[in-house]
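Before the break, one more example. Copy the sequence into your notebook; we will annotate it together after we see the structure.
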Amino acid sequence: MPDAFNAYMVNEVDGQYSGSLTKLRLADLPHEKVLIDVSFSSLNYKDGLAVTGKGRIVRKFPMVCGIDLAGTVAASADGRFKAGDKVVVIGSGLSETSWGGYSQRMRVNPDAIIKLPAAFTEKQVMAIGTAGYTAMLCVMALEHEGLQSGQGEVLVTGAAGGVGSAAVAILAKLGYRVVASTGRTETHDYLKFLGAAEVMARSELDRAGKPLDKARWAGAVDSVGGRTLATVLSQTRDDGAVAACGLAGGSDLPTTVMPFILRGVKLLGINYFAAPQARRDGAWKRLATDFDRTKLDAMTVVEPLSDIRALAEKILRGQVRGRVVIDVNS
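Here is what the structure looks like once it is written out:
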């Protein structure tokens, strides 16, 4: 690969946020031990916030965006990796405190790198990305609290997005009766293809709720937050659990203690970045067995890095369905 290469970089000067495709050289990259020739990255909600500056994701400037990457080791000063290894980085501070995956080449801290799981191609592992990995952590957390198929309906909010699509597909493969919530009627057939037994309108949940509503859900995966999460909690059955991993609908939680003290409902916060290594390894093993490849491929599109600004705006407007893999070399 030539010494000069493309990257999407953001900066902030005198309070003005800006971003553009930029030419970098090897000498510009961070002084980390592993140099990676990047093949693919992905588009997550957090990437939309970082690229546009509409959320305080980036903590130091200038910053190369992209919270995920997959590629091939070009050079390594760490004994765990050698030239030619296929590797992956999911989250781990990329695009926040460390330069990220929207670049054709990147030097990365070896502690953040894992070898490409044998079950996946580089494109597939980026189709999973932070969103699919987070969905798997949600499912594992619900199971840890006792959720089993046959116990009742499991709700997935924000179901047409990246986390939601993955959660629907995984839960359906595991035998759960999945109810998918979305505000986009055009995605109903798509969600049923992924395995949803029923699709409900977002408006049924995004409303001022009661402290306790009619109990329905044995468990739920919520990527929306706000009033939606409050309503889901009020509708969760005795000893049920809700895995919360997003705030697309707001960071507030207008609820009461009623679901927790009268029904024993558990609210499980999912932080993909802070998961211990054993849980991360377990999640990837589960993804290899519990994520149907045909559904993964069907929910994925590949887009060029050159379109990243427009794609970032789309995901923040809720106009992206499923998963977007970013080809950093186009």
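The chain has two domains: 4-116+299-327, 130-272. The chain has a mean pLDDT of 95. Try to locate both features in your own notes.
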